[in-house]
Amino acid sequence: MTSQLSAPKKAKDRAQPAPDAAPQRPRSRAWLLILPTIVLLVLALGYPVGWQLVTSFQEFGLKQQFGQPPEFVGFDNYIQLLSDSNFWVVLGRSLLFCLLAAGFTVIFGFLLALLMKQVHKSIRLILQIALLLAWAMPVVASMTVWVWLVDWRRGLLNWLLVKLGVDAQGHNWLADPVTFFITALVIVVWASVPFVALSIYAGLTQISEEMLEAAAMDGATGWQRTRLIILPVIAPVLSIVMLLQLIWDLRVFTQIKLLQDAGGVANETHLLGTYIYQAGVGSGSFGVASAVSVLMLLITVAISWYYVRSLMKEEN
C-alpha cells in the first residue's frame, strides 16, 4: 500500500517543471557600453600617437614646417638616437629620478595617511584641506614660489641659511646638477604627495578597527600590525598609486623646464621631457624628437605591463 501511494507522489515530483534559470544579460550588447569610450580614446590619442610614429621614420625639420614634403628615412632617427651617448645619460638620469620621486612620494604619502588615521577629526580635516589645496595649485603658480625660495639673489632659502650662520650668500642652487635635481625632487614629491596620501587614506578606512584591536590585544606591535595587516590590505591601492607615480614622474617636464630657465644648466639637467623639447623645438629635428617620444611610450608600457598583467589575471 505504501508503495502504491508513493509512486504517484514521485511521478508528480518528476512532472513538475524545473525552475526557470536566472535571466542573463546578452553579452553581445556589452560592447555598446564601452563603444563611446573607445571612440573618444581613438580620437584623442590615435591621431597624435600615429603622427608621432610616422614622423619618427621621417626627416622632419624646419623645411617641412614651411611646406616641403618630409623625406622617409626609415630607422635612421632611431639609429642616430641610440648611438648618441648623451641620450643614454638622459635616459638613465630620467629613470633614476623617476624611481626616487615615485618611491619618496609613496613613502611620505603612506606616512601622512597613517597620521590622518590617528589624529582627531578636526586635525584630519585641516590636513585634508591643506593637501587638497597643495594638489589643486597650478604647477606654474607653485613653481613661481619655489623659484623664489631657491633664488640665489633674493631667495628665502639662502636668507635663512645666512641667519643660521651658514655661508650661503649668493649660492646658486640650480647651477650645480646635484642640487638642481635635489630641488626638483623636492618640488615633484611635494606636488604628488597629496594625491597619494588621500588615496591611501581611503584604503585605510576600509580596514576593520576590530581586527587591529584584536591584533593589539594579542601582543602585536605597531610595526607588526602595519606589516602583517595594513600593508596586505591596501596593497592594491599602493600598487596603483606607485604605477601612476612612475608614469607621471617619467614624463615630468614643466618643473624641470622652469628650473632650467631660472638658472639651471640645460645640457646637464635634461630629463626625457626636456630632451624631447630641446630636440624638437630647440633644434628643429622633429623626427628625432618623435623617435624619443615613441621610445618613451615603449618604456611607459614596459613599466605598466606587470600591473596590467596582474589586473588581467584577476579578471580571468
TrEMBL record:
One of its GO terms (cellular component) is plasma membrane. One of its GO terms (biological process) is transmembrane transport. CDD domains: TM_PBP2 (cd06261). It holds the Pfam family BPD_transp_1. Keywords: Cell membrane, Membrane, Transmembrane, Transmembrane helix, Transport. Its main location: membrane. Residues 91-307 form the ABC transmembrane type-1 domain. PROSITE patterns: ABC_TM1 (PS50928). It is a multi-pass membrane protein. InterPro entries: MetI-like, MetI-like_sf, UgpAE/MalFG_permease. The chain crosses the membrane at residues 30-50, 87-113, 125-149, 180-207, 228-248, 286-308. The keyword Endoplasmic reticulum does not apply. The keyword Transmembrane helix applies. PANTHER family: BLL4140 PROTEIN, DIACETYLCHITOBIOSE UPTAKE SYSTEM PERMEASE PROTEIN DASB. Belongs to the binding-protein-dependent transport system permease family. This is Sugar ABC transporter permease. It comes from Glutamicibacter uratoxydans.
